[in-house]
Amino acid sequence: MSEVEITRLKVQGKEFLGLRVEMPNAPLLLIKGTIGFAMCGYLNPSTAEKLGDVAVMVSGVNTFEDMLNAKIKWSSPKAKEIGIEEGRILRDEIDKL
């Protein structure tokens, strides 16, 4: 596997962009939708909130499939405005991104 992977993901009939970067201890993962994104614990939710992004965070993940099956640990105020809350499974909410 290369150190940086960019791939197209199809989930619930919608296409997303997946980014995976191999880091020393765990991968950095991001799934980008049309209006927002899902990030792993490596990225800073405070910055996403400050910039007004529609963003959610999941943690303890190593693959895109892990991300999709993980519970949302954090959602930005903008994500909450469109109905994305913590505790929900990302796969069930990703179409809103």
Automatic annotation (TrEMBL):
Pfam families assigned to the protein according to its UniProt record, in alphabetical order: DUF1805 (PF08827)
InterPro entries found in the cross-reference section: DUF1805, YunC_sf
Name of the protein in its database record: Uncharacterized protein
